[in-house]
Amino acid sequence: xxxxxxASFRPAVDVLRGSLIGVVEVIPGVSGGTVALIVGVYSTLIxxxxxxxxxxxxxxxxxxxxxxARAMEHFRAVTWRIVVPVLIGMVVAVIAGxxxxxxxxxxxxxxTRAFFAGLIxxxxxxxxxxxxxAWSWRLVxxxxxAAAASFVLSGLPAGQVADPPLVLVALAAAVAIxxxxxxxxxxxxxxxxxxxxxxxxxxxxxRNLPYLLAFAIGAVVGLGSFVGLLRMLLxxxxxxxxxxxxxxxxxxxxxxxxxxxxxxxxxxxxxxxWGVIAxxxxxxxxxxxxxxxxxxxxxxxxxx
Length: 304
Description:
Helices cover 74% and strands 0% of the residues. It is built from 18 helices and no strands.
């Protein structure tokens, strides 16, 4: 009985997972790929995205008179029963997050950064655990170098472009979307660095169709170009890839130091220290609860 009952709730749980991924995608410094890893759908999404891209490329066989068989084989390999609910949750969460969560972050920056810092810090346990006994001093060095790179990137000054050309929007989207499939890199933070974060949120809220279309085209091109490479790395060099992800996640914590000035420079802790510590602990607890939920759904197996 427990197994069928869990299966009946699976679509709703996958919508919730997609919502969590979508919500953090509007928060600079927090990686949607990290949350996908935490909630246990990362490998499924990467594999499915790879098949969608390869299937789309294989559609050229129809123009060559070879038929759609190869393309359909890739499309059938997509785990649609998981991908569709996750995508629905992501889209709804991004739209809602642009209206609700973004102002919340703007009005309560210290508190929200503290919460998400706890989330990311606890989520380090996920890739560390997936590497498992394969950890060696070489992998630790790889993780340290990735952490240093992420730390430097997180400290880059952010600007703002009020009326960007659509070509720039597409190029920025092509780069930022890669963060969705690689843990530890925040797509929203990259948009912040490019000066397009607030502009993109405004485009979502205002339903700026030309802007959103340019963004979507860039995202599709970027995802199609990157996902195959990432899938190959995960298949052939999983330990190294996960070590890099661990380092990127650790280094990105710089962007989530709770006390910052208007330029993003770190400030010393304020009088709200204990409240910030409590929120950080709550964020960590949320991650641990999500990981526990994933283990339960997977019948005790490690996250996919």
